[in-house]
## 1
Amino acid sequence: MLVEVLYFDGCPGHERVLPLVRRLAGQAGAKVALRRVETPEDADAERFLGSPTVRVDGVDVEPGAAEREDFGLKCRMYQAPDGLSVVPAERWLHEALAWRPRR
């Protein structure tokens, strides 16, 4: 299993999400890759919804993200229970990883 964190240099949100992603991926035995998106053309080709975008085996962790088409070099915000956040809900990561802690 591969967890990718896609980002671009104009938005520091990926730095906030990386510790959570690394912890949960490690518990699930998944690998983590950090990938920079550099141009608007790359954003379209990657279906990049903004920084940070977290994908597990190529699938965005945010429910409903596959239907979106607002790709581009921008900061991404996620709807959290207490408001907007640059970090996706931990529950989404658990579900995407079919979360099972390693023993």
Note: Residues 13-28 form the longest helix (16 residues).
## 2
Amino acid sequence: MLPVVHIYLGPQLPAYVAETVRQTRRFHSGPIVCVGSGAGQIDPSRWDRTKLIQRLREVSWLDRRNGKPLFPDIYPNGLWGYALERFFVMAELMREEGWDSALQIENDVAIYFDPAATAEVMKQCFGASCAAIPAGPVEGCTAALFYVGSLAALDAICAEILDLLALSEGELRARFSVGMIHEMILLAIVQRQRPDLLGSFPVAPSLPQLWPFSPRRWPGRLARLGSLCDRIAPRHPRRLPPHGLNSHIEVFDSLFDASSFGQFAGGTLHGHPSGIAFPHHWLGRDLASGRFALIWNHDEQGRRVPSVSDRMDGRIWRLNNLHIHSKRIRDFV
């Protein structure tokens, strides 16, 4: 059976995590493993002295480049460091448990499919490689759902990340034409350099109506004008992820949400209301234009499940998850 893993490395376990795990249990028929500092969870400090974790902490500068951590009440040691360390903790967990494969689900992601029943499909699509969800040309790949087809592939991804962190942020930004460096961008760089290690879940039935674009940086009061200019005349990114947006869609016959659908449905933690669509996400323009519509129904077991209606061709696609940035998980179960 495919193990599903929830990892939370912050010191204070938010209340929404429990609801997320309950939602996972509503759909997943296999084992669920929770890694964190709370009761009933595997304490991640057990791997603090492993060579892999120690090496990461030696070279990582993700939360050292600015004076104030993001969300200091929740992540006093820095959000991005914890987000990146998840992959290394996942590797140590799989090594200890002797797992051949596993699926990691982020703690603000509600699923609406059974990973155990879909395990053979993921194995067919990705083999011994890993897979993430492409978020956008300037956002990288999110581990909202992160499939590990083999420990060897995950170890190789961790090694690639360590090599990247040996460079400074400025060097990485210049070399790969990206903005802020975080774990999603690092995953995207690894995917572009080693597509054999990291595949993509399908996020859209076809390319967006217009190519995704990199937002311009407009200061102060000019920000609104810049946003308008981006909508009228988008800037094209230099390179797109090699796997595309609908990779393996014919096999999955469904879509996965990097963040766009979840943010459009529930807003964000930063106060954006429902209906928000960011242009730098793959689906921002199509959501804002009304091409896609989120539909809610109940399955044969009475569970609430979402689908996506594509108004260009009238087709309806099952949506396997929602990445709920607002953390209001209960609103979507």
Note: The CA atoms of residues 24 and 111 lie 6 Å apart.
## 3
Amino acid sequence: MIQSEKLSAACNERDRIGYQQLFDEAITKLGGFFKPPILSEEDVGKDVNMLSLVKENMPALSVANVKKLAEILRKETGCNQLDINYCAILRKFHRIRYAM
């Protein structure tokens, strides 16, 4: 991403589309950690699209926000994140796992 920003505006826009897809996939991966396991046919109907659940809270695609997400994904236990968008995302994912 950093190297792409040094390119022309057209190239940067083209690259950002791919980066946005990767960013969305990483958020979805994070949400997957919170999904309860699907153990029956009935559970398949309860499956939640994690990305659509948090789309409104997703921070803008930037190097800083990608680094914050990478930090969250590297943690094995617990996470202390002060970014309001990521706090909202984690809260919604946590609710899927434990409150529903």
Note: The chain has a mean pLDDT of 81.
## 4
Amino acid sequence: MNSSADTTLWARYGPEVVRESFDVTEIIFDPSTGETHFLNELPSLLLSVVQPQPLSLNALIGRLAGDVEVSEQGREDILATLQFLAGAEIIETRGPF
């Protein structure tokens, strides 16, 4: 994993999204963009732990996994999902610092 991933911060500054769950899909409406998104489990879970205060990848993984060790593949999946959420303008990034 590249070192900039460890220094990038992730946050959600806009108003809370409106959520509705159906089976394994969560539908969210983002009032700050007016867009509706269909998310599977990992993006939905990450969105629930991203806060207005910017957090690093390691801090977000800690919120998700607690004391459970996350594999390198798991870290890469989480990073890719954060990048997807940022690309969809659901969350924002700062850095790398």
Note: The radius of gyration is 13 Å.
